[in-house]
Design goal:
mainly alpha; Receptor-associated Protein; single chain; 3 domains
């Protein structure tokens, strides 16, 4: 009778390699003793091994922008310290907590070991590494300064991910206000108002118009709650699908967003920051302006800014200076950004000036988001108070009227 295979566990380990460099990682093995033997065969002297605790909620499995930013920073740090690319990828893969990241980085390592460039290996993962990332890595490999370019990429990704997080935070507050207000209202209408209705039925007197309105609204929610909630869910799904697949709808929403009070200014400043940061990074890496603008268009995060950037690309390709082309989009780019670009072109330091523009608008976004957070937190309480208070008043109006009669 065949012996049943032993189950494997994931172990987290720390050790020292042949060069005396302290490294850490995690491997799947049947036991701690077998893992020690495996590491020693690979030239690693393990100093600490422990079984990895399982996450209560399973942990995040999807690779996000923050993971890519960290990967770029780790590669830049290790390569600048003299660690070869293949070994750097191996260390990162073994030390990562996300299985999806481990698999991807091991895949990159295998491709590079097989003779491919890192840029070619990255093209196999288009969902994680966009054209901009690949182009910058390719420029670094061709110029022999990959670690420097990786450092620029890491800084760029960290900045862009930070501004994306700020925008999401700002947009989440209104969504939270609407969602919480709707859920609280639905609970009151479905479960609380019917109890008052039974009490009112025994009064034998006419009810105030406001109370009748709330009672009818409660009956509507009780009978058709599944239609209401399903309709809202389908509406959100249809909106997201149309925004993703229909260019015309996407363009319409992006244009409307730019004109919404407060949030429009926030969206505009974040788009300018991403435009300046991306163009600065690519220009500093030695990418020609015309080629850089094509990659910048997809990084702005707004269709109208992307269209403006592509028009700038056409203009600069025909010999027009960037500052002259930008002047036709003064409704998108404030005068300060135009002046900084003009100074950068005249002084030959366009990348530095664009970096300063990005720093300025990123700081503006930070200030605006912090201000919105301060403003919207009490606003949530006010809106909920008005809704709940209105329902309470509607339910107690008949009781107050009855007390006056008595």
């Amino acid at each position: 009778m065949a012996q049943k295979a032993l189950s494997k566990s994931i172990f987290v380990w720390e050790g020292v390699d042949r060069k005396g460099i302290r490294i850490k990682g995690e491997n799947e093995a049947q036991s701690e003793a077998l893992l020690k033997s495996q590491l020693r065969r690979e030239g690693i002297n393990p100093t600490k091994i422990r079984k990895k605790a399982k996450s209560l909620f399973g942990g995040g499995k999807k690779i996000d922008g923050k993971d890519i930013a960290v990967l770029a920073r780790q590669l830049a740090t290790m390569m600048s310290s003299g660690v070869p690319l293949v070994q750097s990828l191996d260390i990162i893969a073994q030390g990562h907590e996300k299985p999806a990241m481990q698999k991807m980085v091991f895949g990159l390592k295998g491709d590079v070991e097989g003779g491919n460039t890192l840029a070619d290996a990255l093209t196999k993962y288009p969902d994680q590494f966009d054209e901009l990332f690949v182009n910058l890595v390719q420029a670094g490999e061709q110029s022999g300064s990959l670690e420097n370019l990786l450092d620029k990429i890491a800084t760029y990704k960290e900045k862009t991910e930070a501004i994306k997080a700020k925008i999401k935070k700002a947009m989440m507050y209104p969504a939270a206000v609407v969602s919480v207000a709707f859920i609280v209202t639905a609970i009151l209408l479905i479960f609380v108002v019917p109890q008052f209705q039974k009490l009112f039925d025994g009064f034998g007197a006419s009810l105030p118009a406001f109370t009748l309105f709330v009672i009818h609204l409660s009956k509507l929610f009780q009978q058709w709650w599944w239609v209401i909630f399903t309709g809202i869910g389908v509406g959100i799904w249809a909106f997201a699908r149309a925004y993703k697949r229909s260019y015309a709808f996407h363009r319409l929403i992006d244009g409307w967003t730019l004109h919404v009070p407060i949030f429009g200014t926030l969206a505009s400043k974040s788009a300018i920051a991403r435009f300046a940061r991306t163009l600065s990074t690519m220009f500093a890496a030695g990418v020609p302006l015309v080629e850089a603008l094509e990659s910048v268009a997809g990084a702005t995060g707004n269709v109208h800014y992307a269209e403006a950037t592509m028009k700038m690309r056409e203009d600069t390709a025909s010999g027009t200076q960037l500052r002259q082309s930008m002047r036709q989009f003064t409704h998108l780019f404030p005068n300060m950004s135009l002046q900084m670009v003009a100074i950068g072109e005249e002084s030959g330091a366009l990348d530095n000036m664009l970096a300063k523009v990005a720093d300025f608008y990123e700081e503006e976004v930070d200030v605006m988001v912090d201000g919105l957070s301060t403003l919207l937190e009490p606003l949530i309480m006010v809106i909920l108070g008005v809704i709940v208070g209105g329902l309470v008043i509607a339910m107690y109006l008949p009781i107050f009227n009855l007390g006056k009669v008595v």
